[in-house]
Structure formats: C-alpha cells, structure tokens
Amino acid sequence: MKAFQNIKALLNKDLSGEGVNNSRIILIRYISAILAVWYAIVGIFCLIMPFGGYAIEFFATAVGFGGVLYGSYRTDNNKQLLGVMSMIIVVSSFVITSAFGWRISFQNYLYVTLVLLWYDAEITNRIKAFLSLLTSAIVCVISLTTRFGITVLDPSSLEYHIITFINIAVFCYCLSLVAYFFCTQYIASEQKLMMYNQKLKHIADIDPLTQLMNRRSAMEEIHNISEKFATSNNSVSIAIGDIDFFKKVNDTYGHDCGDYVLQTVAGLFSSKMEGKGFVCRWGGEEFLFVFSSMNGDEAFVELNDLREDIEKFHFMFKSNEFRLTMTFGVDEFSNNVSVDEIIKAADEKLYMGKENGRNQVVF
Q: How much is the pLDDT for 351?
C-alpha cells in the first residue's frame, strides 16, 4: 500500500513554473506509465512463449512510453509530450497490430490519442478535424494490412484470452482516465464560473462601503414584494431615513470619518431589520427600509426604536467621540398607488421631519 502511495505521489508531482498545466502533464504521466508497464509485460510474455520475434516491438514501445514519462519531469511543454506520446501510439498500433493481429485490439489506443487531441482547448478545430481524418486513415490502413480476425495467438488458447481481455481493460482504463480528467476539468471550470458569476452579482447588487443592498437591487426586490402584495393580505411599509447634519461630520472630522459613520449605522440597521425586511443604501447618507410584514403603525414603532438607538449611540473615530440623530419618513403599500409614488411619499415625509426639527419619524 505504501509503495502504491509513493508511486501515486511521484506521478502527481507538480512542475514548478508559472503557467504550467500540471494537470495535463499528470494525465500524460499516468497513461505513459500504464502503457509502458503493459507493453513491457506483453514483451516478456512474447519471450516466454514462442513469439520471441515480436518482443522487440513491445519493448521498444515500452521504452518510448518510458521516455515520455521521464520527459514529463524534465519539461513543462505538455503539447510536445502529447505529440510524442501520440506518435508512439500511432506507430506502435500500426506495427504491432500488423504483426500480432487485429483481434488483440492494440489498435484501440489510437482512440485514446484522438480523445486527448479533441479535448485540448489549445488546438484549433481545423487541426482536430485533420487529425481525426488522419486517425481514420491510419485505422483503415491497419485494417487493410492486417488479416481481420487473424492473430498469431490461438483464439481458443488461454493466453489469447488473457492478453486480449487485459489489453481491452487497459485501453478502457486509459480512456476512462482521459474522460475523468476532462470531466473534472469541466466541473471545476463550471464551479469557477458559478463563483465568478456570484461575485459579479454581489458586486452589482451590494454597496461596497456599507455592504447593504444598493439602490438598483433594492428596487428589484421592492417590485417583487409589490407583486406578491397584490395577491396577499400582508401589510408592507417603506421608509427612508437620513442622517442629520451628515455634511458637518465630513467637514469636521473628514470623509474617512463619514465612511466610518455610514458603515456603523449600516451594521445597526442590518441587525434591526433582521427577520423584518431589508435595508439598502439609497444614496449618500440616505437609507431605504422595507418592512415586508408590517403596516405603517408597526413600522413607525420599529423606526422610532431605531432612531433612539442611533441617538444614544456613541460614535468613536480615532480620538473623536460624537453623537448623531436621524430623521425618517414612512408610508404604507397600497394597491391603488405605485411603488414609485409610495417611495416619493416616504421621501416627502422625511423632508417634513427635516423641516420640523429633525430627529423624528414622520408617518
């Protein structure tokens, strides 16, 4: 078991270097190692059995795959490695099948090369099509130069069945390795794309300073709520809040302090709105609140509690301690009034509160 783990670790050894496609090189290693061992075993079989004349072909092929394996630790050029391995498979398939017989299925390894080439994103479709036609031509030539169904082995012998079945098993395993490799590559790419799309959506939907919804994403959510409101009995209220004399904070303590205030109140808002609706940064120092299951009176109570929390909060920026207040305007959803009109009504009530002394909730 330890020996197997050591071999696996050796095959999976990464090449250092920026831009190196280690996964492709590792795939080439696995296929080269498996085929080198298998062709060497068949070569030994030929020496033991009365087919010694064919052993040189198998040993030469095994040495070729061994060379590819060795080269995979010396170069990061996976294209070159793939090209050499493909050439060895083509030549060995032609020579061995022509000499040893079609029924042993050594020509099947051509399809491993074909699949490897087709899934290489760096090779153009025109070259892939050419290589496919070339592979088809090679298979046709092999079939024409080999008596179909004939083999140097006795088809009724145990040796024939062992070699044939193991050869097919090795071929299927190599093909499965290629399929597994490209399948995992595809899944990894899909997952990376999904994560990237989620990141882009987060960037598009979230205000970078406060980490609250931005105005655009909030409007989408409000319209969704509005559609549900039309067919439900739930009450929905919208409020707009504004930090009183926020400009004075920026002028007195600097814009960094203003950012600190916005981030701090955003955190307080998020905690307050948990399970009640959502809050977004509407613009500047204005915030929009949506209470998804509250009428205006209930939202008024919640906002007044929040207003008192803000009023009592001690803001501390560097060595500066100060307090702030906020003014809110709130209005209820109605089937007879559009979303834009409700938001406008809440905004008008906010400014009524501003004109009447600030630090209050107007409903």
A: 96
Q: Are residues 45 and 174 both part of a single domain?
A: yes
Residues 177 and 52 in one domain: yes
* Residue 81 backbone dihedrals phi, psi, to 5 degrees: -60, -45
165 alpha carbon, distance to own chain's centre: 39
pTM for the full predicted model: 0.58
Q: In this structure, are 170 and 261 located in the same domain?
A: no
- Taking only the tens place, the pLDDT of each residue in 210-255 is 999 999 999 999 999 988 887 787 899 999 999 999 999 999 999 9
Alpha-carbon span 235 to 334, nearest angstrom: 9
Cα–Cα dist 29/283, whole Å = 58
Do both 169 and 293 map to the same domain?
Answer: no
Spell out the residues 6+ positions from residue 278 whose beta carbon is closer than 8 angstroms to its own: 213, 218, 221, 289, 290, 292
Widest Cα–Cα separation across the chain: 109
For residues 226 and 294, is the Cβ–Cβ distance under 8 A? no
